[in-house]
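Much of our argument rests on the idea that a fold can be written as discrete symbols. The record that follows shows the chain in one-letter code together with its fold in token form.
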Amino acid sequence: MSRPATKWKCVLCNNTIYWDELFTYLKNGVSHYTCLRDKAIRNAKIDSKELTLLLDSLEEELKSIVSYKQKLSSLQNEEAKKTLDQIEKDAEKNAGILTRLIEKFSDLS
């Protein structure tokens, strides 16, 4: 059985991004979380422990997004769906904020 692919290629490794992988949106395109993490740590502009805390927080948000999306497909109650959808959107916003901060504190070019 084949894995469903997104329409994106990772801007850091140029490989296809699949829906079952953690990924995030950088200023210049989409990246696998693992590619972002590895390059950010190599090119850290701040203490690596602090950057690792930010990367761990991003990973948690990305995992939450995946979890919420999976749960949304199982919900029938409209109020519950709307609420969980809003929570998932908040996690996406948080992931975006963390991604911008990680980009700022590491040289990803």
